[in-house]
Amino acid sequence: MATLSPEGVRRVGRSGWAWTKGALGTPDQSNPSNGSAQPVDPDRAWTQTFRAGATGLLTQVDLPIYLEQNRDNPTVPGDLTVTIQEAQSATVHVSNGYDYDDSGTLPVPAGSVFARTNVPASRIVEMPDPGNPPPPLHISFLLPPLLIKGHTYAIVVVSTGTARHNWLVSQTTDVNPYPNGNMLFQFDGSNSEWYNYTYQPYAGAPHISYVEAAFTTFMLPSLPIP
Questions:
Q1: Residue 86 lies in a domain
Q2: What's the rounded Cα separation, in Å, for the pair 74 and 198?
């Protein structure tokens, strides 16, 4: 049996995919920013998990990440490494409004890298106004990974150099803007434990701030043909 995507993917047999380079596909998962930004420091890895809405190839991820240049204390802009990883449930640190001493279980990057790309510093522009940002980074992959509908995956971003970057986010109160994933961070970009950044209770108040990274995934879903 063969399957054919309407925009450039053909599969013959059980494992042979042929991809038409440059075929973008259609948006699958998306979380727009509402004007807030989260610093992406070189000493942390950041991730946004998402649940695939279709089975097919992940051809592109749009990430609104920009350079924050400190002119009073000049820094060295660095590259960004972006990976797509499988996500598996694990224990994470959770905020209680004062610290991250609580814990919970969430899907986190499992270390199985499905795709990797390097974004050179020359492509990352400064963001003068979070409310009126330049176009996002269009992240593509030499070999687009095959994702399965309903499975959870992680977009992992690690920066180099000494400059801070800003990742636009959506920040809301009491209602999660993207319930199909979470934003998490990890110290030193190592294999240490992950911290849930999405869930932020207000200290001493009955409200919760939810923070999710802004992103859009593009998929080439496969369709069965007789």
A1: yes
A2: 30
The CATH number given to whatever domain includes residue 195 is 2.60.120
Contact 91, 149 (CB under 8 A): no
Which among 80, 24, 92, 95 is positioned nearest to 57, based on CA atoms?
24
Indicate the pairing of strand 80-94 with strand 195-196: parallel
Buried b vs exposed e over 148-184: b needs ≥16 C-beta within 10 Å?
Answer: eeeebbbbbbbbeeebbbbbbbbbbeeebbbeebbbb
Q: How far apart are the first and last CA of the chain?
A: 7
Domain assignment of residue 152, given as a range: 25-221
Per-residue pLDDT of the chain (226 residues; tens, 9 = 90+): 333 333 444 443 444 455 555 567 899 999 999 878 888 877 789 999 999 999 999 999 999 999 876 665 566 778 899 999 999 999 998 887 777 878 899 999 998 899 999 999 889 988 766 667 788 999 999 889 999 999 999 999 998 877 788 899 999 888 999 999 999 999 865 567 898 998 888 766 778 888 999 999 999 976 544 4
Contact 76, 124 (CB under 8 A): no
